[in-house]
Amino acid sequence: MLYFIEQCLNGVQLGMLLFLLAAGLTLIFGIMDLVNLAHGSLYMLGAYFAATFAAATDSFVIGAVLAFLATFAAGIVLEIIAIRPLYGRNHLDHVLGTFGLLIFFNDLVRRIWGPAGMSLPLPSAMLNAVQILPGVYYPVYRLVIIVVTLAVATLLYVVVMWTRLGMLIRAGASNREMVGALGVNIKLLYTLVFGFGAALAGLAGLMQAPILTVQIGMGENILILAFVVIIIGGIGSIRGAFAASIIVGLIDTIGRAFLPDVLRAVLSTNAAITLAPALSSMSIYMLMAGILVFRPEGLFPAASK
Amino acid sequence: MSAWREPPRLYVPAPRLDPGTIVAAALLVLLALVPVYAALTGNVYALTLFTRVLILALAAVSLNLIMGYGGMVSFGHAAYLGIGGYAVGILWKEGIGSGFVQWPVAIGASALFALAIGALSLRTRGVYFLMITLAFAQMIYYVAIGLERYGGDDGLTIRQRSQFGGLIDLNNRTLFYYVCFALLAGSIYLISRLVNSRFGLVIQGSRSNERRMRAIGFPTFRYKLACFVIAGALCGLSGALLANHTNFISPATMFWTRSGDFMVMVVLGGLGTAFGPLIGTVTFLLLEEALSRVTEYSGLIIGPLLLLVAIFLHGGIESLFAGWRQEKVPERAP
After folding, report:
1. Kind and range of the H or E element at B24?
2. Is there a contact between B303 and A105 if contact means CB atoms under 8 Å apart?
3. Which residue in chain A has the smallest CA separation from B143?
4. A249-282 tens-digit pLDDT
5. 3-state class (DSSP) for residue B248
6. Which of A11, A157, A193, B324 makes the best surface tag, with the fewest CB within 10 Å?
7. What ranges do the domains of chain A cover?
8. How many angstroms separate the Cα of A273 from the Cα of each of A265, A290, B1, B142?
């Protein structure tokens, strides 16, 4: 039971990470109608920035803040140079162009930081585990990830729903020509949204960096998971992205932790050992297929455009 | 383009002698002469490289059938390559070395997978379709990693190429090259026949305006699914060839960036043209090869180049030769 609670928390933590990625992706898709395959590269950049800055300043927190700002800046520059000409083009052009960016960033990172990965050590205060329930100890750092992401999600919700900027963003998503005609600088708005999406991806990358190693191509696997989240949640819907992230995070983690035991109860040990890894990695895709059959538009489809 | 506006015709239109056709014909002749060149100069590497080009071109040709003609932007095409390869690898490992079994199984398994994911993903369109095909392909990638018996993450070394009962010896490099060449040329021919048939016109019609095709009575879903399965089967064959070529199959064969490479090849060459995918594959792979000799960081050049192609070159390389700008493939918002 205690193990189960711990695994649930791990699932929520993975879900939080996925949400940061998926929120940026779905925001950029919902507002600019842009498919961004280079989103995982920004995740990778965030991690590399954090590892570099933390080593330079000798402080994890300062390094993380600097990395967040640096990814935001990188997103802005990327938007102005490379993404802007792609707006209004068909999705195939987006795929081709941003796939080119992905190839570019992989080799750029290899050029700057070298082919070997990096590591981002945690400050000692975050290495410990705390007792969250009687008998359940959980690493502080993973709790920090959950809390930070929840704060970001709340902030995102407040900004999008209750501020003038958020109003413009929502208006831009439903009718960009009209917003532009009303005198809003839609170009600047797009740049800001892209930069913000990039910063969210960077935040996910830098928070994940201490848990995994920082390496080239680290964004490529998780990007697909973020896509699955968006499909399940409904493209363009932040609320959907949040719900689907947690669902996907939980199912993936719990599947990996408990499926072998469940299968062992039904099948022979050998068969269970062979089947479990394959089945548990398939589980979220099965969920996606199921959602597609019953709700092709996702769980929380964005308001119709 | 827009062949759907023309009345269905039962004859095959005579190939026009535009620059595009001439370039394509020249390319085919050059490709046919590669083994001669290799034999004369003793450059075995060229033969290996171009065998790879032909095999991947076959995959690109099959992707072009659904993406270029059918408007189904599938981002999971590498999955079939892997399935075809694993069919050969797994059968070999279980003691079945005959190509008469391996290749049909490779084709059949890919077709079956295409049928399953096509039936699900063709319920959606646009970006949804793209992401869903991507996700399903990634699922197969993880399944392959889980196949401990067949090497798991490390992949499987296939110590024996497919046996064709003494008829064809695939260990003969030149012969293998010509087998690939014949299969590629045959596929290009078959697809050009297919897209001009009634079936192909329905497919192209659904790309231009699916609602109208349905309104005049075509069950477009079935047509598109059939087209999707044909493309998957063809790519499975390419996977079987690739496994024979490299004597190796691993999950990395179907990592999603490989699907991205295929899309690049097709779009680079010219979407919805008979020889575009071949031109695109030759260009992309040779460019990669040339750059990797000059610099260790070829991505720094290829990446921006792809971005520029996406921004400026709409119809791909084919359109440069053909002298007309191609119509953009219409894509509806999801």
Report:
1. helix B19-41
2. yes
3. A278
4. 999 999 888 887 888 888 777 777 777 777 888 8
5. strand
6. B324
7. 2-121+140-294
8. 12, 26, 53, 15
Average pLDDT, chain B: 87
Report residues of chain A scoring pLDDT below 50. 304-305
Q: Confidence band (pLDDT; 50, 70, 90) for B315? A: low
Phi, psi of A116 (to 5 degrees): -75, 150
pTM: 0.88
H or E segment and range at residue B157? strand B156-157
Residue B151: its pLDDT value, please? Answer: 86
d(CA A185, CA A191): 10
Is the pLDDT confidence value at B94 over 50?
yes
Instruction: Determine whether domain A2-121+140-294 maps to CATH 1.10.1760.
Output: no
- Amino acid letter at A206? L
A219: which chain B residues are within 8 Å (Cβ-Cβ)?
Answer: none
